Amino acid sequence: MARPRLGIALGSGSARGWAHIGVLRALHDAGIEPDVVCGTSIGAFVGAAYASRDLDKLEAWADGLSRRDVLRFFDVSLTGGLIKGTKLLDFASTSFLNESFADLDRPFACVATDLATGREVWLREGSVANAVRASIALPGLFSPQLLDGRFLVDGGLVNPVPVSLCRALDAEVVVAVDLGMDMLTTLQRRNGKPVVANGGWRNAVGRWFGGGDDKPVRPSLADVVTNSIAIMQGRISRSRLAGEPADVLIAPRLGQLNLLDYHRAGEAIAAGRKATEHMLPLLHSLLD
Q: Is 251 helix (H, G, I), strand (E, B) or coil?
């Protein structure tokens, strides 16, 4: 008897999305290859590279990024968002995403949001690069992508972990990778005051709201935009996953990573691999 048709839903999460590489590596090492790949935002980026058999190339590139490299790719924009993203996306589209959907190794689709109507848009045809550009256009940070007469932005606004899209592509068993769960669950209370673990922007935000003994530090505009959207997407993910549950939920522990820490791919990949290995017995039982 053939095993069930397996789909994987790769969620949004900006730089934390490098964890998807670790997830896919762990599945491959366990002899499991998804039949259907769907992604939102950074999940679309990694999913497209996987579907076009360019995951090795993407991992090598991501693992070699330095902070200076990341800053060099982020070109400042004065319209539509803080970052045009043209340099980064042009490089990616010529290196990893230079195919059409019809040429991919397996079914792939990604999610974007129509900026004018707020509707969820499923992208399954035409240029993979243009579809991914739309899916990762985080509002306020990346400029919207004009596609088929519509301005499209990050799919995480409506469907951060696209389980429903996997089901629509006839996946019988769906693995969901949620990158935001750890961010919401690491909030703790200590001595009656809100404390956020793992330092970085979290402590800055905590001090801003009076959560620490240090003088409050006001976050940067980029921090405000990315962190606010991350919190929103985390809440939306929980709601969507409650109504459209996956068969297996993988939630890497990524609370130590800022959403723009693209130069810390090694940590994210390791976290993705570890979280996946923990869920392999359940996945094997469903597929067997």
A: coil
Contact 23, 276 (CB under 8 A): yes
Q: State the residue for tokens 């990893």.
A: 96
What are the residue ranges of helices labelled H in the chain?
19-29, 42-51, 55-63, 67-73, 86-95, 128-135, 163-168, 181-185, 201-208, 221-243, 265-287
Out of 14, 41, 143, 164, which one is annotated catalytic?
41
Give the SS3 label for residue 129. Answer: helix
41 is catalytic: yes
Is 6 buried (19+), middle (13-18) or exposed (0-12) by CB count in 10 A?
buried
Which one of the listed residues 54, 114, 154, 223 is annotated catalytic?
154
How confident is the prediction along the chain (288 residues), in pLDDT tens digits per residue? Answer: 688 999 999 999 889 999 999 999 999 999 999 999 999 999 999 999 999 999 999 999 999 989 888 877 766 654 555 555 566 667 777 777 878 999 998 999 999 999 999 999 999 999 999 999 999 988 777 788 999 999 999 999 999 999 999 999 999 999 999 998 776 554 433 334 443 434 443 444 444 444 455 566 677 766 677 677 777 878 888 888 889 999 999 999 998 888 788 899 999 999 999 999 999 999 999 998
228 is catalytic: no
d(CA 8, CA 59): 18
- Tokens coding 172: 């019988």
Among 239, 215, 278, which Cα is nearest to 161's? 239
pTM: 0.84
